[in-house]
Design a protein that fits this description.
Blueprint lengths: L1 E12 L2 E13 L4 E5 L6 H8 L7 E6 L2 E2 L5 H11 E5 L10 H15 L7 H11 L15 H13 L5 E5 L7 H18 L2 E5 L3 H4 L4 E6 L2 E2 L13
Parallel strand pairs: 3-8, 3-9, 6-7, 7-8
Antiparallel strand pairs: 1-2, 1-4, 4-5, 9-10
Helix pairs in contact: 3-4, 3-5, 4-5, 5-6
Amino acid sequence: MIEINDLTKTYYLGSLEVPALRGISFRLERGEVVAIMGQSGSGKSTLMNVLGCLDLPTSGQYILDGQDVSQMNDDQLAEIRNRKIGFVFQQFNLLPRITVRRNVELPLLYGARNNGHVKTSIKERAEATLTSVGLAERMNHHPMELSGGQQQRVAIARALINEPALLLADEPTGNLDSHTGAEIMSLLLGLNKERNLTLVIVTHDPSIAAQTQRVVHLRDGLIENGDGHATLPESS
Protein backbone atom coordinates (compact mmCIF):
# COMPACT_ATOMS: atom_id res chain seq x y z
CA MET A 1 0.00 0.00 0.00
CA ILE A 2 2.71 2.49 1.10
CA GLU A 3 6.41 2.06 0.46
CA ILE A 4 8.93 4.71 1.51
CA ASN A 5 12.52 4.26 0.31
CA ASP A 6 15.40 6.39 1.65
CA LEU A 7 13.15 9.46 1.90
CA THR A 8 14.62 12.88 2.69
CA LYS A 9 13.14 16.34 2.97
CA THR A 10 15.26 19.47 3.35
CA TYR A 11 13.97 23.00 3.78
CA TYR A 12 16.04 26.04 2.88
CA LEU A 13 16.05 29.28 4.89
CA GLY A 14 18.25 31.48 2.75
CA SER A 15 21.58 29.68 2.67
CA LEU A 16 20.69 27.57 5.70
CA GLU A 17 19.72 23.92 5.11
CA VAL A 18 17.21 22.45 7.56
CA PRO A 19 16.91 18.64 7.20
CA ALA A 20 13.45 17.55 8.34
CA LEU A 21 13.63 13.91 7.13
CA ARG A 22 17.06 12.34 6.81
CA GLY A 23 16.62 9.10 4.88
CA ILE A 24 13.84 6.88 6.22
CA SER A 25 12.42 3.68 4.79
CA PHE A 26 9.36 1.67 5.75
CA ARG A 27 6.34 -0.13 4.35
CA LEU A 28 2.66 -0.16 5.35
CA GLU A 29 0.21 -2.77 4.15
CA ARG A 30 -3.39 -2.05 3.20
CA GLY A 31 -5.66 -1.99 6.23
CA GLU A 32 -2.96 -1.34 8.81
CA VAL A 33 -3.40 1.15 11.65
CA VAL A 34 -0.16 2.97 12.49
CA ALA A 35 0.67 5.80 14.89
CA ILE A 36 3.43 8.33 14.25
CA MET A 37 4.93 9.80 17.41
CA GLY A 38 7.82 12.12 18.23
CA GLN A 39 8.71 15.37 19.91
CA SER A 40 8.24 18.74 18.24
CA GLY A 41 10.76 19.03 15.42
CA SER A 42 11.11 15.27 14.99
CA GLY A 43 9.70 15.31 11.44
CA LYS A 44 6.15 14.09 12.13
CA SER A 45 4.39 16.91 10.30
CA THR A 46 6.80 16.74 7.38
CA LEU A 47 6.27 13.01 7.03
CA MET A 48 2.49 13.48 7.19
CA ASN A 49 2.65 16.16 4.48
CA VAL A 50 4.66 13.85 2.21
CA LEU A 51 2.35 10.88 2.87
CA GLY A 52 -0.63 13.12 2.09
CA CYS A 53 0.92 14.36 -1.19
CA LEU A 54 0.87 17.91 0.17
CA ASP A 55 4.63 18.13 -0.30
CA LEU A 56 7.27 16.30 -2.32
CA PRO A 57 10.39 14.72 -0.84
CA THR A 58 13.78 16.19 -1.63
CA SER A 59 15.03 12.73 -2.54
CA GLY A 60 13.96 9.13 -2.19
CA GLN A 61 10.84 7.33 -3.34
CA TYR A 62 7.23 7.26 -2.17
CA ILE A 63 4.99 4.55 -3.63
CA LEU A 64 1.28 4.93 -2.87
CA ASP A 65 -1.09 2.18 -3.95
CA GLY A 66 1.31 1.11 -6.72
CA GLN A 67 2.03 4.63 -8.01
CA ASP A 68 5.31 6.50 -7.60
CA VAL A 69 4.19 9.94 -6.48
CA SER A 70 7.69 11.24 -5.71
CA GLN A 71 8.08 13.08 -9.02
CA MET A 72 4.49 14.10 -9.74
CA ASN A 73 3.55 17.66 -10.63
CA ASP A 74 1.04 19.75 -8.67
CA ASP A 75 -1.97 18.74 -10.78
CA GLN A 76 -1.13 15.05 -10.49
CA LEU A 77 -0.67 15.36 -6.74
CA ALA A 78 -4.04 17.12 -6.41
CA GLU A 79 -5.72 14.28 -8.29
CA ILE A 80 -4.08 11.66 -6.08
CA ARG A 81 -5.16 13.53 -2.94
CA ASN A 82 -8.73 13.75 -4.18
CA ARG A 83 -9.00 10.09 -5.22
CA LYS A 84 -6.88 8.17 -2.73
CA ILE A 85 -6.35 10.17 0.47
CA GLY A 86 -8.63 11.45 3.21
CA PHE A 87 -7.52 13.98 5.84
CA VAL A 88 -8.73 14.51 9.40
CA PHE A 89 -7.16 17.34 11.42
CA GLN A 90 -7.15 18.51 15.03
CA GLN A 91 -8.88 21.69 13.87
CA PHE A 92 -12.01 20.48 12.11
CA ASN A 93 -11.58 22.91 9.19
CA LEU A 94 -15.28 23.05 8.36
CA LEU A 95 -16.82 25.93 6.44
CA PRO A 96 -19.20 27.63 8.90
CA ARG A 97 -21.62 29.20 6.42
CA ILE A 98 -22.73 26.02 4.68
CA THR A 99 -24.52 23.00 6.04
CA VAL A 100 -22.92 19.83 7.29
CA ARG A 101 -24.02 17.99 4.14
CA ARG A 102 -22.52 20.63 1.88
CA ASN A 103 -19.24 20.45 3.78
CA VAL A 104 -19.11 16.72 3.18
CA GLU A 105 -19.99 17.12 -0.51
CA LEU A 106 -17.05 19.42 -1.27
CA PRO A 107 -14.46 16.76 -2.29
CA LEU A 108 -17.02 15.16 -4.64
CA LEU A 109 -17.87 18.52 -6.18
CA TYR A 110 -14.17 19.16 -6.79
CA GLY A 111 -13.83 15.77 -8.50
CA ALA A 112 -16.95 16.36 -10.57
CA ARG A 113 -15.54 19.64 -11.92
CA ASN A 114 -12.30 17.91 -12.84
CA ASN A 115 -14.26 15.24 -14.71
CA GLY A 116 -16.28 17.83 -16.60
CA HIS A 117 -19.65 16.79 -15.21
CA VAL A 118 -21.67 16.76 -12.00
CA LYS A 119 -22.67 13.38 -10.63
CA THR A 120 -26.31 13.11 -9.60
CA SER A 121 -25.37 10.87 -6.66
CA ILE A 122 -23.35 13.51 -4.78
CA LYS A 123 -26.17 14.40 -2.37
CA GLU A 124 -27.05 10.75 -1.78
CA ARG A 125 -23.44 9.76 -1.14
CA ALA A 126 -22.96 12.61 1.32
CA GLU A 127 -26.09 11.63 3.20
CA ALA A 128 -25.06 7.97 3.32
CA THR A 129 -21.59 8.86 4.59
CA LEU A 130 -22.98 11.14 7.29
CA THR A 131 -25.34 8.36 8.33
CA SER A 132 -22.37 6.00 8.63
CA VAL A 133 -20.72 8.31 11.20
CA GLY A 134 -23.93 8.75 13.20
CA LEU A 135 -25.07 12.16 11.93
CA ALA A 136 -28.19 11.31 9.93
CA GLU A 137 -30.25 13.82 11.91
CA ARG A 138 -27.69 16.65 11.75
CA MET A 139 -26.86 16.91 8.06
CA ASN A 140 -28.85 20.10 7.48
CA HIS A 141 -27.37 21.89 10.50
CA HIS A 142 -24.43 24.29 10.32
CA PRO A 143 -21.11 23.34 11.96
CA MET A 144 -21.43 25.84 14.82
CA GLU A 145 -24.69 24.16 15.84
CA LEU A 146 -22.79 20.95 16.59
CA SER A 147 -20.60 19.82 19.47
CA GLY A 148 -16.86 19.34 18.98
CA GLY A 149 -17.25 15.60 18.66
CA GLN A 150 -20.01 16.00 16.09
CA GLN A 151 -17.88 18.44 14.10
CA GLN A 152 -15.05 15.92 14.04
CA ARG A 153 -17.49 13.29 12.77
CA VAL A 154 -18.39 15.67 9.95
CA ALA A 155 -14.69 16.05 9.16
CA ILE A 156 -14.32 12.26 9.11
CA ALA A 157 -17.31 11.94 6.79
CA ARG A 158 -15.77 14.53 4.46
CA ALA A 159 -12.51 12.55 4.48
CA LEU A 160 -14.37 9.34 3.60
CA ILE A 161 -16.68 10.65 0.86
CA ASN A 162 -14.32 9.74 -2.00
CA GLU A 163 -13.70 6.28 -0.53
CA PRO A 164 -9.95 6.81 -0.07
CA ALA A 165 -7.44 4.02 0.35
CA LEU A 166 -5.47 6.02 2.95
CA LEU A 167 -6.83 8.05 5.86
CA LEU A 168 -4.41 10.46 7.56
CA ALA A 169 -5.47 11.75 10.98
CA ASP A 170 -3.37 14.51 12.56
CA GLU A 171 -4.12 14.69 16.32
CA PRO A 172 -7.79 13.81 15.63
CA THR A 173 -8.72 13.86 19.33
CA GLY A 174 -6.56 16.83 20.33
CA ASN A 175 -9.45 19.31 20.68
CA LEU A 176 -11.81 16.89 22.40
CA ASP A 177 -12.39 15.77 25.98
CA SER A 178 -11.31 12.25 26.88
CA HIS A 179 -14.78 10.69 26.56
CA THR A 180 -15.47 12.27 23.16
CA GLY A 181 -11.93 11.45 22.02
CA ALA A 182 -12.50 7.81 22.88
CA GLU A 183 -15.69 7.83 20.78
CA ILE A 184 -13.81 9.31 17.81
CA MET A 185 -11.05 6.70 18.10
CA SER A 186 -13.65 3.95 18.26
CA LEU A 187 -15.27 5.36 15.12
CA LEU A 188 -11.94 5.54 13.25
CA LEU A 189 -10.95 2.00 14.21
CA GLY A 190 -14.39 0.71 13.26
CA LEU A 191 -14.15 2.38 9.84
CA ASN A 192 -10.70 0.85 9.40
CA LYS A 193 -12.17 -2.62 9.86
CA GLU A 194 -15.31 -2.04 7.82
CA ARG A 195 -13.58 -0.43 4.83
CA ASN A 196 -10.08 -1.93 5.05
CA LEU A 197 -8.69 1.60 5.22
CA THR A 198 -5.03 2.16 5.88
CA LEU A 199 -5.11 4.52 8.87
CA VAL A 200 -2.13 6.68 9.90
CA ILE A 201 -2.51 8.74 13.09
CA VAL A 202 -0.12 11.45 14.27
CA THR A 203 -0.46 11.75 18.03
CA HIS A 204 1.30 12.84 21.21
CA ASP A 205 -1.04 10.67 23.30
CA PRO A 206 0.34 7.24 24.30
CA SER A 207 -3.19 5.99 25.00
CA ILE A 208 -4.12 6.71 21.37
CA ALA A 209 -0.95 5.08 20.05
CA ALA A 210 -1.62 2.01 22.19
CA GLN A 211 -4.80 1.34 20.19
CA THR A 212 -2.92 1.10 16.89
CA GLN A 213 -1.13 -1.94 15.46
CA ARG A 214 2.29 -0.32 15.17
CA VAL A 215 4.03 2.85 16.29
CA VAL A 216 6.65 4.81 14.35
CA HIS A 217 8.82 6.88 16.71
CA LEU A 218 10.64 9.74 14.97
CA ARG A 219 13.60 11.66 16.34
CA ASP A 220 15.54 14.29 14.40
CA GLY A 221 14.11 13.13 11.07
CA LEU A 222 14.94 9.45 11.61
CA ILE A 223 13.00 6.41 12.75
CA GLU A 224 14.15 6.10 16.32
CA ASN A 225 16.54 3.19 16.33
CA GLY A 226 19.51 5.13 15.07
CA ASP A 227 19.91 4.15 11.42
CA GLY A 228 16.84 5.70 9.77
CA HIS A 229 16.29 2.62 7.61
CA ALA A 230 14.54 0.39 10.08
CA THR A 231 11.59 -1.65 8.93
CA LEU A 232 8.65 -1.09 11.24
CA PRO A 233 8.17 -3.83 13.83
CA GLU A 234 5.84 -6.59 12.75
CA SER A 235 2.25 -6.45 13.90
CA SER A 236 1.48 -8.75 16.79
